[in-house]
Write a structure and sequence with these properties.
Oligomer: single chain
Helix content: under 10%
Strand content: over 45%
Number of helices: 2
Largest sheet: 7 strands, mixed
Distance between the termini: 59 Å
């Protein structure tokens, strides 16, 4: 009788997406990332670290699932410093989005010591939050990514196109 080779079990590890941005004094940068699409079986950990001395306009987009498919697991973490001081520490997870019936997320972060303060606001599922160290955070959720982008457009100037 032939013996079977021992079974190999795979340990699933998350896909890691890491972005680091540094913007020097008197510099301006606009970063509009293409959407991260988190398919049904995916496990994605996305981290963004930014150091800003000038001005940064950062747009991140997430779509949980493809057409007709549920989304997988996604965790996003943003760590932002302005002028060497903490400006924002934020984490978001797909579990809360899916529970609320959302599969699209757009965040836009405008950072820099010269960024004008704005009042907090919300319209539907789009939120504007001023940051103490010079910045503004917009977050929008939707049934899908186009819905989240449309909701965000009510509170923001036009979004940069993804590169």
């Amino acid at each position: 009788m032939a013996s079977r080779p021992p079974s190999r079990s795979r340990v699933a590890a998350p896909a890691l997406v890491r972005l680091e941005v540094a913007v020097g004094p008197d510099a301006e940068a606009s970063v509009a990332l293409p959407p991260v699409v988190v398919t049904a079986q995916a496990d994605v950990l996305a981290t963004t670290h930014v150091q800003v001395e000038g001005t940064l306009d950062l747009v991140e987009r997430v779509q949980l699932g493809r057409h007709g498919e549920g989304g997988g697991s996604w965790t996003g973490r943003l760590v932002a410093d302005v002028g060497g001081h903490p400006a924002l520490r934020q984490s978001q997870r797909s579990a809360g989005m899916l529970t609320a019936g959302w599969s699209g997320l757009v965040t836009r972060t405008l950072l820099g010591p010269q960024v004008q303060a704005r009042d907090a606001a919300c319209v539907g599922e789009a939120y504007l939050v001023p940051l103490a160290r010079g910045g503004v955070l917009w977050t929008s959720f939707g049934a899908d990514l186009p819905a989240a982008e449309a909701a965000l457009a009510v509170l923001t100037p036009p979004l940069p196109s993804p590169c």
